[in-house]
Amino acid sequence: MSNEKKREFVGKGVKAGNFDLINISISKSKLENHWFEYNGEHYVKLTVGGLKETDQYGKTHSVWINDYQPEGQTQQKSAPVARNDNGTDLPF
């Protein structure tokens, strides 16, 4: 059995045309507990990786929480971010 921690998948994406762009969709409810604060800004770390095969919906990539912590370091998560004026939780 692997010592790797199970990844928490939060969305999928698809390569955009012949460009090196990936359009992704992320589940808001799966991100709410993963925001952290750094220098007064709120962030969530994500990783995007290619799927071995395109799925039944045409998705070519998967998105998951990047919870990597170098040994000896811990990350303080803040409370979920309140909605901003544009009606989203995202800090950008």
Number of strands: 6
Instruction: Estimate the helix proportion, in percent.
Output: under 10%
Cα(first) to Cα(last) distance is 40 Å
| Global mean pLDDT | 78
Whole-angstrom Rg: 15 Å
Number of helical segments? 1
General form: elongated
In terms of per-residue confidence, which ranges show pLDDT below 50 for 5 or more consecutive residues?
A: none
What strand line-up does the widest sheet have?
2-1-6-5
Structure class: mainly beta
The percent range for strand residues is: 25-35%
The biggest beta sheet reads:
4 strands, antiparallel
Order of helices and strands: EEHEEEE
Describe this structure in words.
There is one protein chain. With 92 residues, the protein is mainly β. Helix content is 4%, strand content 30%. It has one helix spanning 28-31; strands spanning 9-15, 22-26, 36-38, 41-43, 46-50, 61-65. The protein has a 4-stranded antiparallel β-sheet. Strands 3-4 form a two-stranded antiparallel sheet. A hairpin with a 6-residue loop joins strand 1 (9-15) and strand 2. The chain is elongated, with a radius of gyration of 15 Å.
Please outline what is shown here:
By secondary structure, this protein is mainly beta.
Keywords summarizing the entry:
single chain, 92 residues, 4% helix, elongated
What order do the helices and strands come in, and which of them pair?
Blueprint: E1 9-15, E2 22-26, H1 28-31, E3 36-38, E4 41-43, E5 46-50, E6 61-65
Antiparallel strand pairs: 1-2, 1-6, 3-4, 5-6
